[in-house]
Design goal:
Immunoglobulin-like; 4-stranded antiparallel sheet; 22 strands
């Protein structure tokens, strides 16, 4: 309804005749130039289909790579006759990362005021700006084909949180809720690389993060529910949009197109990920590189009390991910600065003297520093 369409215009001597359609009605008018007068001649109801596509343009906005978004398109018959909808997107197909995931319209005949629905999805695997179009054909005499336009922008779900005290980046993956430590440990045995990741202690904005590990192995071979892993498979394909060399490393500086150990070790070999070709495997390689991850985000605001012990970094907490360490804690003998005063075990350890005969008199020439009494001392 409400559409204006010119049907014809011709001159008959000095009288010009014109018709246009408004909804299901055709309005006929003529202009007599001899009298300089516009006259209304007739109105006639036309029995014809008239499809309305809503919306005819979709902007998905900004979507993270690896995520997806869907929107519905309604095709309605606003005419008095029943249109036949052709095969949608056949002549002008939709290309990835767009797709028509549900099509309830192709081949359908719509009665007056009846409608059908399409579902169009956007599922990017890499960052960029995307646009496409597709056609909805029908036997509508006014519009035999309606073109729908699609637009979207994809961004990586990777956020650089900053650098640690050694200058290495911490990069957060919001899709998987993990943080990557952007440093490649030079190739070594699985045991040594695993020990390095487990012992890794990262000082970031005054907070110590020491819960790192090797990337999780893609475990589809044992558990199909774990195919959407948190490891390098997801990073390689979903976040960085790689499928084959040459590879994109995105915001990472130290990530290399090389082989990296993953978190499972078997006596027959260890799992690794080939970050050049995007494949994982089990092999008895002697050496591979190391890359570390941890579950969760890191905190960039020094005023936030992460561990809930009543002290933030700004308030002097020297280990704001460990609630037992803060300026109000009691110093104990554990080789750690418990009260954040810059000293370790002040007042400790105690000096014990060698007492081989257990007569409570020690040998001042033989001593040991310890927190608790030692045997024969």
């Amino acid at each position: 309804m409400g559409h204006f369409y010119n049907r014809f215009s011709r001159a008959c001597g000095r009288v010009f005749i014109n018709s246009h359609r408004l909804g299901n009605n055709v309005h006929i008018s003529y202009y007599d130039s001899s009298n300089d007068d516009l006259k209304y001649a007739a109105k006639q109801t036309v029995i014809a289909p008239d499809i309305i596509v809503t919306p005819a343009s979709i902007n998905f906005g900004r979507i993270n790579a690896g995520a997806s978004s869907s929107q519905a398109i309604t095709v309605k018959n606003d005419g008095a006759a029943s249109p036949v909808i052709g095969n949608i997107a056949q002549a002008n197909p939709v290309a990835a990362p767009f797709s028509i995931t549900t099509d309830n319209c192709s081949g359908q005949t719509l009665a007056p005021d009846e409608s059908c629905t399409l579902i169009v999805s956007f599922a990017p695997v890499s960052a960029g700006s995307f646009s496409d179009t597709f056609d909805i054909p029908s036997n509508d005499p006014d519009e035999s084909s309606v073109t729908v336009s699609l637009n979207a922008t994809s961004t990586l779900a990777l956020y650089i949180r900053g650098t640690d005290s050694l200058g290495n980046q911490l990069i957060y993956d919001s899709d998987k809720n993990i943080t990557w430590y952007d440093y490649t440990k030079p190739a070594d045995t699985w045991q040594n690389i695993n020990s390095w990741a487990s012992a890794l202690s990262v000082n970031f904005n005054g907070r110590i993060y020491d819960d790192w590990k090797l990337p999780e192995t893609l475990r589809c071979w044992s558990d199909p529910t774990k195919c959407s892993d948190k490891g390098m498979e997801h990073l390689y394909h979903a976040e960085l949009g790689n499928s084959s060399p040459p590879i994109n490393t995105g915001p990472f500086i130290n990530l290399q197109p090389s082989i990296y150990w993953e978190d499972i070790y078997l006596y027959t070999g260890s799992y690794f990920y080939d970050f050049l070709f995007g494949i994982w495997s089990l092999d008895d390689y002697l050496y591979a590189n190391g890359f570390a991850m941890r579950v969760g985000d890191v905190v960039t605001d020094p005023d936030v009390d992460v561990d809930g012990d009543g002290y933030s970094v700004t308030q002097g907490d020297c280990h704001d991910t460990n609630a037992s360490i803060n300026p109000g804690a009691v110093e104990i003998c554990d080789f750690i600065d418990n009260n954040c005063d810059g000293q370790i075990d002040e007042g400790f350890p105690l000096t014990y003297y060698r007492d081989a005969d257990n007569d409570s008199y020690g040998n001042q020439a033989i001593t040991v520093q310890a927190c608790i009494p030692q045997p024969a001392m």
